[in-house]
Structure formats: structure tokens, C-alpha cells
Design goal:
The complex is a heterodimer of chains A (111) and B (114). Helix content of chain A is 0%, strand content 59%. By secondary structure, chain A is mainly beta. The radius of gyration of chain A is 13 Å and the shape is globular. Chain A starts with a strand and ends with a strand. Helices cover 0% and strands 53% of the residues of chain B. The chains are: A mainly beta (111), B mainly beta (114). Chains A and B meet through strand 5 and strand 10 of A and strand 4, strand 5, strand 9 and strand 10 of B.
Chain lengths: 111, 114
């Protein structure tokens, strides 16, 4: 079945860029999402990209998609302590209403 | 626009009991999905309701059930609780139609089974 893989932890220094990586197996994925979960809260959609796009930029966030390698990344520029959270990658094929989530990457930002 | 609300926020039960969790979606949303989040298994999909019908189902035992009312509010029930059911239960609402179909999550219900 479909699978979405992410590394579990990433530690960066405040002010540096963070890059969170994700790989997926479903070649028919149409929508790819990045969600953020802060402590004690639900998931919040940060950004998404269509499978026919290579890149999407939204303020400090840059999403890169390599469809051939089924690799998705989220780059956060000028990472701040407030960016510390768990980041989930998710994919959904066009015919499905339910995304498949990765297990999440815990981003730790230290001074 | 009010967000997704879940009640209760915290719940402590003992093994063998049953529990009902409630979710109120964003106004106008017709789809409600339920997820179980645990440190070991991550985010696992339980089921999705759309217009009062279960449209999608994850791989959970029959002890986990749900329903959706005509106002799109949804409830999830877990019977004969087990220790392994301790988790954060998240509800997400969406339009349920095509396109981005962004899911909006509630804050979750933290269930502890003793």
C-alpha cells in the first residue's frame, strides 16, 4: 500500500535554514501537503503542492518536489524558535479523499 | 469562522469501559475524518464520514465505530477499552469534495486508559 517516510528528528540553530525531507511510494499522488503540529494542538496545513509542479514558495517556506524520485522537501528559511514543532508530510491521489500521512519530523530549534 | 472543536479534551477511562468522543466540524463542511495519534504508530486513519455515511474506513477493529449527524457533527465510540487505545484522537473536517480538500484539524481528545 501507500507509504510516506520521514526522518523522525531534525535539530537546527536559530537563524539557519531547515530542510525536512519526505519520500512517498504512490506514483498516482496528486496532492502533497505539509502540516505542522504544535504541542497540545491538532495539525495545521502549512502548504501544499500539486504533482505537476516542481516548486512552490510561500514566504519563508519553499517546497520542492522531485516526482521521478517521489521525494518532497520543505525548506524553512531563517528558522525561529517558534518553528519548533512536528512537521507531517502527506500525499493524496486525486480519486481519494483521505491523505496518507508520514510519521512526522520533530524540528527542534535551539539558540 | 469557528474552527473544529472536540470534546472532551481529556478523558481517563479504565480497561473494559467504553467512551464516546465528539467532533463539531467547521460550518459548511460535510466530511469528518477521525485519526488516532500515538508516539509508536504516528497518525493512523480510523474512518471518514460524509453526509451521514461512512465513506472510508481504516484498518481498525470493530470496537471503533462512529457516526455523523445531519448537522455534520460526528461522534466516535470505542467499546471494551484496552490499554493500547491510549492516544490522542484527532478529528478533521473538510468540504469532502474534489480539489485541495484541505483538512482542518481539531485540538484532539487525549484518552488515557488505565
Amino acid at each position: 500500500g501507500e507509504d510516506v517516510e520521514q526522518s523522525l528528528f531534525l535539530s537546527v540553530r536559530e537563524g539557519d535554514s531547515s530542510v525536512i525531507n519526505c519520500t512517498y511510494t504512490d506514483s498516482s499522488s496528486t496532492y502533497l501537503y505539509w502540516y505542522k503540529q504544535e504541542p497540545g494542538a491538532g495539525l495545521q496545513l502549512l502548504t501544499y503542492i500539486f504533482s505537476n509542479m516542481d516548486m512552490k514558495q510561500d514566504q519563508r517556506l519553499t517546497v520542492l518536489l522531485n516526482k521521478k524520485d517521489k521525494h518532497l522537501s520543505l525548506r524553512i528559511a531563517d528558522t525561529q524558535t517558534g518553528d519548533s514543532a512536528i512537521y507531517f508530510c502527506a500525499e493524496r491521489e486525486g480519486g481519494s479523499y483521505i491523505p496518507t500521512f508520514g510519521r512526522g519530523t520533530s524540528l527542534i530549534v535551539h539558540p | 469562522k469557528a474552527g473544529v472543536t472536540q470534546t472532551p479534551r481529556y478523558l481517563i477511562k479504565t480497561r473494559g469501559q467504553q467512551v464516546t468522543l465528539s467532533c463539531s466540524p467547521i460550518s459548511g463542511h460535510r466530511s469528518v475524518s477521525w485519526y488516532q495519534q500515538t508516539p509508536g504508530q504516528g497518525l493512523q486513519f480510523l474512518f471518514e464520514y460524509f453526509s451521514e455515511t461512512q465513506r472510508n474506513k481504516g484498518n481498525f477493529p470493530g470496537r471503533f465505530s462512529g457516526r455523523q449527524f445531519s448537522n455534520s457533527r460526528s461522534e466516535m465510540n470505542v467499546s471494551t477499552l484496552e490499554l493500547g487505545d491510549s492516544a490522542l484522537y484527532l478529528c478533521a473536517s473538510s468540504s469532502g469534495s474534489g480539489g485541495i480538500n484541505e483538512q482542518f484539524f481539531g485540538p484532539g481528545t487525549r484518552l488515557t486508559v488505565l
